[in-house]
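Input record (one chain):
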Amino acid sequence: MSIEGYLGIVTSNNNSAGKVVRKKVPHMPAPFRSVTPHIVVKHSAAAIGFYKKAFGAVERFRIPSPNGKGLIHAEIMVGAPVIMLAEEMADAGCHSPISLNGTPVSLML
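The corresponding structure, as predicted from the sequence alone:
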């Protein structure tokens, strides 16, 4: 992707006249706000259930892992902000707080 893509400008020549068209696109698609937390947990599906019960979270979607043991990616909303989460995958460098003895949170800008 060019720097233009990061600045929210999309260049395309997919039109009937064959002309290059440049248009501004939102740099942050809805419902993302500014900073998006991404957490890594053990037992991600159970964690979503807990967040629903404890905080009234709404599940946007989930992508199960190919081996059926957890989720590669999921998104929930607690109020307006989106929270991303995934199952611990040590071989991919994704560790839960239990394995780290600390926090697995990263912030997406």
